[in-house]
Amino acid sequence: MLIAIWAQAEDGLIGRKGHLPWRLPADLQFFKQQTLGNTLVMGRKTFEGMGGRPLPGRRTILLTHDISYRVDHPDVLVMHTPEEVRQLAEQLDQPVFIAGGAQIYQLFEPYYDLLLRTVIEGDFAGDAYFPPFDFTSYELVEQTDGIVDEKNKYPHHFEKWIRK
Ligand SMILES: NC(=O)c1ccc[n+]([C@@H]2O[C@H](COP(=O)([O-])OP(=O)(O)OC[C@H]3O[C@@H](n4cnc5c(N)ncnc54)[C@H](OP(=O)(O)O)[C@@H]3O)[C@@H](O)[C@H]2O)c1
């Protein structure tokens, strides 16, 4: 089972100079809650933007074309094609979370079973956008407002879409 998980501004913005354009701990918490104990797939740029370290408690599959790319960490697996990832996902009983960035979301576009999208309201600057996407193949089955408080200043909501 392949799940896309991402946070975007209303205009589709997802990144700025290799990082997230906003600070929203509630969304990081949501991401952790959804993915803990499971497998994440990310592009080389997103991985390096996180300091070249995997998130704790999750296996990370890193995608790169570079066959000499090495990461010396037991929780990181380097792969070189999306097919390898899909084969692994088919073998696993647990879901595999496609965790960005823009290039990687696009690679798996035809294959998602589920989408978990956080939409954040605010005026953000950045350089990476979620790729063009056919939402008509999915049904929005859940939408929950996040709580705005001292630490989470931007209005936001969490969406769950299931493939029709
Ligand atoms: N808001 C969110 O939820 C969210 C989530 C994740 C990331 N982001 C943001 O997204 C931005 C990064 O996105 P990005 O599109 O620039 O980079 P990316 O998708 O993280 O990584 C791109 C890299 O993935 C590898 N790759 C791409 N296609 C491949 C293929 N077919 N086979 C093997 N490897 C492949 C390539 O690595 P090589 O160049 O090494 O070959 C490519 O340079 C950052 O700003 C990050 O913060 C946002």
Overview of the structural elements:
The model has no long low-confidence stretch (mean pLDDT 97). Helix content is 20%, strand content 32%. An eight-stranded mixed sheet has the order 5-4-3-6-1-7-10-9, sandwiched between helices. The two termini are 14 Å apart. The protein has helices at 25-35, 44-49, 82-91, 102-107; strands at residues 2-9, 13-15, 39-43, 59-63, 76-79, 96-98, 114-120, 128-129, 138-145, 156-163. It has four helices and ten strands; from the N terminus they run ββαβαββαβαββββ. Helix 2 links the parallel strand 3 (39-43) and strand 4. The chain is an alpha/beta fold and 164 residues long. It is globular and about 45 Å long. The chain binds NADP nicotinamide-adenine-dinucleotide phosphate. Residues 6-7, 14-16, 18-20, 42-46, 49, 63-66, 80-82, 99-104, 107, 128 line the site of NADP nicotinamide-adenine-dinucleotide phosphate.
Task: For the structure shown, list the relevant keywords.
binds NADP nicotinamide-adenine-dinucleotide phosphate, alpha/beta, 4 helices
